[in-house]
Amino acid sequence: MTYKEEMIQINEKIKFAEEQGKPVSKMLYIKQIELLEKAHTEFIETAAKKGYDLNTNLDILETEIRQFTAMSQLAKKIGISTEKYEKYIKDARIRVYGKECTEQIFYSQNNKL
């Protein structure tokens, strides 16, 4: 079974439990996170094989941030640390924008809304 098929099955189990008003197993969300991590790895490997420059491609960065944000949201939902995923987002931004620009644009106190 592919990770995509497995994700569909997990999503169906979660939806069924929610519709029944039953608690969703924390392990289902953990498995979702693991599958999203696999999907991210595959995405990056595929992009690199196709010759995309991971250091400059903003579309790749945007997709990565969406993937890491989904992982973070699931982790938060089940009460586990999101720190790892926040670091992944920061590292991806640094890879594309550089450390100084990333700090200034995304993490500077002067740019907080």
Describe this structure in words.
- The protein has 113 residues and is an all-alpha fold.
- It has five helices and no strands.
- It has helices at residues 3-19, 26-49, 58-77, 83-97, 99-107.
Secondary structure: number of strands:
0
Give the oligomeric state of the chains in this entry, treating copies of one chain as homo and distinct chains as hetero. Answer: single chain
Q: Sketch the topology as an H/E string, one letter per element.
A: HHHHH
User: Would you tell me the overall average pLDDT?
Assistant: 93
Counted by DSSP, the helix tally is: 5
How many angstroms does the end-to-end distance come to?
44 Å
Given as residue ranges, the uncertain stretches (5+ residues, pLDDT < 50) are: none
Strand content: under 5%
Structural class: mainly alpha
Largest sheet: none
Fraction of helical residues: over 70%
Radius of gyration: 17 Å
The global form is flat
Summarize the structure.
The protein has 113 residues and is an all-alpha fold. 75% of the residues lie in helices and 0% in strands.
Strand and helix layout:
Layout: H1 3-19, H2 26-49, H3 58-77, H4 83-97, H5 99-107
Helix pairs in contact: 1-2, 2-3, 3-4, 4-5
